[in-house]
Amino acid sequence: MVSSYYYDGKTEPDVSHKIAFNWRKILFSIIFALILLSWCFGFTGKLIDYYNLLTEEAYLTHEEKRLYESIEHLNSEKQNLNQDWYIEKLAREKLNLAKPGEVLIKVVPSENP
Hints:
Elements: H1 16-80, H2 84-94
Keywords: Cell cycle, Cell division, Membrane, Transmembrane, Transmembrane helix
InterPro entries: FtsL/DivIC
GO biological process, one term: cell division
């Protein structure tokens, strides 16, 4: 216990227990703040992961819809390939074929519009 005399003869009060108590408060506050910060950073990481999963889910849902539409188109194409008129149409358009006796006319666009 530290005691010194004031000029009026009274002794100085002992405040060492108050200082120690303040250090305990500060230490507890620092530990609490560190725990809170680590929890917040962990929670923030989970939020980022959750956002990334939502984004990926939206992308995959869109991709699934696109693939189903592609399947429908391919099924339609498959059904049409069993019909003679469609095969003839593809042969004329893609392969530039013609029936015997037909004349192909090729239109060349003019250079000056």
